[in-house]
Structure formats: structure tokens, C-alpha cells
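Provenance and format

Records in this collection were gathered into a single text stream. Each protein contributes a sequence line and a C-alpha cell line. The two records reproduced below are adjacent in the stream.
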Amino acid sequence: MHDLQGQKAVVIGGNRGLGLAMVESLVARGARVTVVARDEQRLKEVAKRLGVEIVRGDATDEALAKSVLGDVRPSLLLINAAAVPGLGSIHEQTWEEFSRCWSNDVKASFHWLQQALRLPLAKGSRVLLNSSGAAVNGSPLSGGYAGAKRMIWLMAQYASGVSKELGLGITVQALVPRQMIGETEHGRVAAELYAQRKGVSVGEFLAGFGAPLSPEQVGEHVATLLTDPKYDTGIAYAVKGDTGIVALDG
């Protein structure tokens, strides 16, 4: 799959932030995109601006995943489930806050990935799960977020193994942004909290990651991952403002 023109894509959480940037990048390359999200108003705005199909629903709903994938039969599935994590040190959070990303991000990724394998998607299809650099370094002020994102990364490995064992021909990969992205709602809130705890400005805190990484850059990196043959076989790829795309396998 080295040309996105005419490819059917389903993007989970594609109505805002990084998910929206991915949708914009796919549409710009001629893909036929269906966006799944909860916020009806944002979905309608995206549909009007980009001409995509939309499905309103809870991404953690197993029946929704089965229905959408069965109806659309995409060759591209981008899973960008992203709840706002509980913010604060571990002693300041409730269990509900601490486990929020497990109940949303991991659960949604599990159901959509499982349905992609069970259907299954056609040979040559690609599934990309959005993880986080927190899966590498931890994130002490965002509860169970880091563990949830590491689990999503591991799920990509597990599913890749299943695809090979069953001869499904589905490529499953994980995207790992290695820095906070201040232009997204979630990134800005987290950056403000970390900056406050460190006693620095938000700009100073974000500068510690090196060159900034915009949502648009992430969208372009995703398009590159999906179309450049050198990224066909790896499982986890980091993206960062000053290094671009870097393989994390091995």
C-alpha cells in the first residue's frame, strides 16, 4: 500500500487533535475516510470541511467496532482513542481518574483491533494504534496513562504475531509520539500542569523536548509510514520534532 488514493480508511477519534490531523493528511492524498467519535457537533464540522463520512458513537463499544468495520471494510484503520487522563500525583487521584485511559484508550483499542483480526480486514490492510512516549519514560502526573499507552504498544506486537500465525496479511503497528504536543487540547493541559510543578513557563517546559512537533507534522508522518516501503515491516515507530520517524524495534 504505497498510494492512498481511493483507499478506504476508518479513523477513531478523528474529530480533534492528532486524529484530526491524520484525517486531513489522508484526505489530502485521496483516501476515502470515515471518522468515528462521540462529539456530534465536531463530527459534523469535520464532515462539512473535509467531505468525510462520519459515525457518532462510543469507541469502546464492541458492537460499534464490529458494525463499522463490517460495513466499511477499510484497508486502513487508525485507532486514536484518547481520553483526558486523570492529572495529579498518584496520592492525589481516585482510582477512577487513575484508570481512565485503561477504561477508554485500551478498551477501545482492544475492541477495534480484535474486530479487525476477527473479520478479518483484507490482506494488505494496515492498522495503526496511537501510543505515546510516556510508554517509554513514564508520566508521573497522569495516573495510569503511561501504562495504558505501553499496553497499546504491546497490543500492536501481539496482533502482529496473530496476523502472521493465521496468515491474515494485516500489518499492525504502533505510533509513538516522543514529546508533548502543545497545540492539542490534551497536550496543552498536561504541559501546563508539568510546567507549574517545575516552576517554569509552558514554553520553557515544551522547549525541553527539542524542536516542536505539530499535529500537522504528525499527520504527515503517518502518511509517510503508510506509503513508504521502508516502514512496511516494523511494529513501533517514534515521531519527534527534531528526529522525524525513528524505528523502535530491536
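Adjacent record:
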Amino acid sequence: MRIPVYLCPSEINDRASGADNLQQYPVNYGANLSTWMVYNPSNGVGGDGAFFPNSKLNFRDFTDGTSSTLAFSEIKSFQAILKTGGTLRRVFQAILSRSLYFGGSNFEVDNGHTEWVEGRVHQDGFTATFTPNQKVAYVSGGKTYSIDYTSEEEGDSATGITYAAVTSRSFHTGIVNALLMDGSVRTVSENTDLQVWRNLGARNDGQVVGKW
């Protein structure tokens, strides 16, 4: 189903995806699924965000405070994504330089955030790896794309850990809108300091974000 409240009025791709031979619709509001590590299926440990697979978090788990932790933020539909490709070492190096010029075997031009029903991070979430609207460069077929990355799709492996760089993006000039765990909505500049954004993405890193 197309759920109107799941779509931002500014989204230019308000259409069904046709993924998996089904008529599925995109989403523009992603759950905060961590700063980098999303889920380890071997032990059920999740990332440091507001949600992770099978999580049963309570307010007491948000030790940084609900006003200092992101719950949801905007995401673009039909996002280019590199899945289960590259090596973690090269990804870490790429993150430091804010680019993802590394090899990968599973690049999809328009697969991210096209299926609100799926529940995986590249469909219904974001991570605070990069600041909002960050252009994350990846070259395929001689063309440069701004992409998302996930090392392993949740549920596809009993042992493979999911790491993800899924950026909060919007069609609003210079900003994204974000919902905090205390229920308040904030307009966040794409020029927000990266460390501040990551502190906001983590529920329990000991950093209480004040004025930002």
C-alpha cells in the first residue's frame, strides 16, 4: 500500500518500486539504527542507535537522554546502494575520507528506501556514519553516484554482522528534519559537526548534546 504519511511532499519519486515483482512503495522517514554497526545475529547484539532487529529497549537504555538521541530522520527513496561488497578495512578508510571508492559486487542504482514493508536498514533506516545530505561518492560504469552502503542484509546470514553507512537525506535545501526520542522535531543543518551528529545517533555514548 501507498501510505501517504510515510512520504514527504518534497519526494520526487512518489511511485511504486516494483521490487521483487510486487508493487511496493517507498518511505521518507528512517529509524535510527546506529552510527555504524547495526546488528550481530550470532549473539543478538544490536548497534548504539534507537532501534535494532528484535530490540526491546526501554527509556532507561537511553542514558544520554531522550532529547539527545535521534529516533527518526529523513531519507530519500530510490537511493543508490552498494550491498555486501568491498572489505571492512577499505570501508573504514573510505569513511575517514567521506567517500566509498572501493570494489563491490552488488551495486544497485535505485534500490534503497523503496520498500517500507521490508524493515532492513537500507530500506527503513539510517545510520549516523555521515552527516545529513553528505555526498558519498562511488563510481560505476564511468558514472559517479552518491550512495549508501550495507555489509550484510539483516536476516540473510546467521553469522554475518551488518555494518551500514545509510545517510539521512532530503530534498530540502541544506537541511533534514529529524524526530528525537523525546517526541520533538528538529530541523538539522547538513553542516552539523560530524561528531555531534554521531553523538545524537548514539543512545548511550556518554555524550549529552546540548545546543546544536
